[in-house]
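Input set for joint prediction.
Command: fold jointly, output tokens.
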Amino acid sequence: MASVPDTEVRKTPLYDLHTSLGARMVPFAGYAMPVQYPAGIIAEHNATRGAAGLFDVSHMGQAILRGEDPAASFERLVPGDISGLTTGRMRYTLLLNDAGGIRDDLMVTRIEENGVPALFLVVNAACKDADFAHISAQLASDVELQILGDSALLALQGPKAEAALGELAPECRELVFMQGAEMTVNGAPAYVTRSGYTGEDGFEISLPNDAVAGLAQRLLDHPDVMPVGLGARDSLRLEAGLCLYGHDIDETTSPIEAGLAWAVGKRRRETADFPGAETILRHLNEGPDRKRVGIRPDGRAPVREGAEIRDGGGGQVGVITSGGFGPTIGGPVAMGYVDSAAAVAGTTLNIELRGRTVAAKVADLPFVPANYKRAS
Amino acid sequence: MADRKYSEDHEWVEVEGETGMIGISDYAQEQLGDVVFVELPDVGKMLDRGDEAAVVESVKAAAEVYAPVGGEVIEVNDALNGDPSLVNTDAFGDGWFAKLRLTDPAELDELMDEAAYKTFCEGLD
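tokens >
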């Protein structure tokens, strides 16, 4: 790993905590981020599946949309039913280009400030500058985007997350999956959502930069909480079948090809007033030519992004977009795009791996069932 | 270990007679993180010094392992197929990769001894 001068890499407010914990720091999306701590990626992955993992995701972009009907204004950019969100509800949605490709994926939560509706956005770190410029340029003149430069973001994920965070903020127990609320956490004003990127129950906590180190330390003092880096974040989300922007989805993939038809709201399908609607609705109605699928390679060797996927006759039918070792599965797992004819669970395919051919099967996603706390 | 030599790519070779046992260093396994698969060379394969001898897959990435010296592969460590994490737990022992019948023992002179390798690694941190 080439070393990068400090001046070129930004630090989150938890940089000193990461280094004091012995993290291996790597440049990621312009930030120095922990890829793993001394316990290692497999231990961190297993801790998140079995107890609770704490992730610094302060590099991600946070912003608030305010003004006259921000949901209606934001719907010009995304296919989700944003106007249909009630206060405290959140949705996964997509910034689209005019061809129906995905500029970024993001979480949007309807919040209320002094009784006035607003939207809280969380976007990918690598895309945030472009996203915010794009959103600002496209908004109605009476809607304003405020980038939250002074807010950090923690994710606490795993079956013990509720018990650990509940000791500091009992109200978090009331939330169900994809719901958020303001609450005081460890003495600081925070916005907490029950969401995450691991397939596990858990929370994301947005709070002021100057309060995040104190909260992180309190959570890490809990015997069930382990710090987790980007390495395990990737293996967890891969097992959960969740897309990584820039890999599994990008400007060339439509939501339907990506298996994200559920992010295209029912009402929006009828109004057809989002970017690329013609292409996306055609994919929805006629079926796309290719689809994102799960892939289970035979044997133990992981297959990685970029590997060609071939059919029995040797013709290329697709490409791997994410691949690695799934610690919970105990073997290699991958995702990729294949021709729709091959996108049926159980289909046998071949993956090119260092000049050899590895047999693989198309598999249902997720590889590991989600463990979200749904409304009963 | 007096007869263990190291390459700048963090491979080691331990020589006994005409046979060199090869593996990767503790520094290398530490950098790679959790090893989940090792692709070993076929027995009988002729390797020139610097040829790809194995591929180590960690959770995150694949890394090539180059032959620190040339030779014919006469044995591989099958135990790694069952438990690749031996590379992490015992890089200089049970985590060995292959044994080579050396082509040219003089190639060993190009490698670092323990002290030189230690200094080399310190310069990398």
